[in-house]
């Protein structure tokens, strides 16, 4: 039980750590175009992302797959770029094409899971209780992810319903800002692909 608490805490601290803000940016841009009233759609979207990263996190920890760390670290901002671009290109229309969004969230979750696995593998070392620790870490990641989702939905609600910011203006600002940050991040990580 003590190990569960430790790995749970490491999980939520990892996703909420500003040093690894790429995962925070992805979750923000994934759900940032939605309102509190869209919580069911957001729940399914985030669950798709969760399923994806849970699969590759487990496969990597159990040594079934291993992919170049430089490639994964480059692909993570690419997932953010693609998601931000789709938000911007959707224009002022309400979010649609949900099935495609769910598939992309699942696929991008696979990539992010490999990013999480680098950190978790370094923590586990020669641990004999990998399944319980993997589960606790994953639950901690989800807890941190839920904090991000709730925060961004509440912030959107305040801007749109209280300060009367137009929904499109907020979506465009958020997606464009995150697009710019992730573009720089991808450019900085590009050379690591070849090292």
UniProtKB/TrEMBL annotation:
<feature type="transmembrane region" description="Helical">
    <location>
        <begin position="170"/>
        <end position="187"/>
    </location>
</feature>
<feature type="transmembrane region" description="Helical">
    <location>
        <begin position="20"/>
        <end position="36"/>
    </location>
</feature>
<dbReference type="InterPro" id="IPR032809">
    <property type="entry name" value="Put_HupE_UreJ"/>
</dbReference>
<keyword id="KW-0472">Membrane</keyword>
<keyword id="KW-0812">Transmembrane</keyword>
<feature type="transmembrane region" description="Helical">
    <location>
        <begin position="71"/>
        <end position="90"/>
    </location>
</feature>
<protein>
    <submittedName>
        <fullName>HupE / UreJ protein</fullName>
    </submittedName>
</protein>
<feature type="transmembrane region" description="Helical">
    <location>
        <begin position="43"/>
        <end position="65"/>
    </location>
</feature>
<feature type="transmembrane region" description="Helical">
    <location>
        <begin position="143"/>
        <end position="163"/>
    </location>
</feature>
<dbReference type="Pfam" id="PF13795">
    <property type="entry name" value="HupE_UreJ_2"/>
</dbReference>
<keyword id="KW-1133">Transmembrane helix</keyword>
<feature type="transmembrane region" description="Helical">
    <location>
        <begin position="102"/>
        <end position="120"/>
    </location>
</feature>
């Amino acid at each position: 039980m003590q190990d569960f608490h430790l790995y749970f805490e490491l999980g939520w601290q990892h996703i909420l750590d500003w040093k690894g803000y790429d995962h925070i940016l992805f979750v923000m841009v994934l759900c940032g175009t939605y309102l509190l009233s869209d919580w069911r759609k957001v729940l399914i979207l985030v669950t798709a992302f969760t399923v994806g990263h849970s699969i590759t996190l487990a496969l990597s920890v159990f040594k079934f797959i291993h992919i170049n760390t430089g490639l994964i670290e480059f692909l993570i901002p690419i997932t953010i770029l693609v998601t931000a671009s789709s938000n911007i290109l959707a224009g002022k229309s309400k979010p649609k094409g949900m099935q495609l969004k769910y598939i992309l969230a699942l696929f991008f979750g696979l990539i992010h899971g490999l990013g999480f696995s680098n950190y978790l593998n370094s923590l586990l070392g020669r641990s004999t209780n990998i399944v319980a620790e993997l589960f606790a870490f994953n639950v901690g990641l989800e807890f941190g992810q839920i904090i991000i989702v709730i925060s961004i939905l509440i912030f959107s609600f305040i801007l749109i319903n209280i300060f009367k910011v137009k929904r499109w203006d907020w979506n465009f600002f958020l997606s464009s800002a995150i697009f710019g940050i992730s573009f720089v991040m991808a450019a900085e990580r590009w050379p690591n692909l070849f090292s």
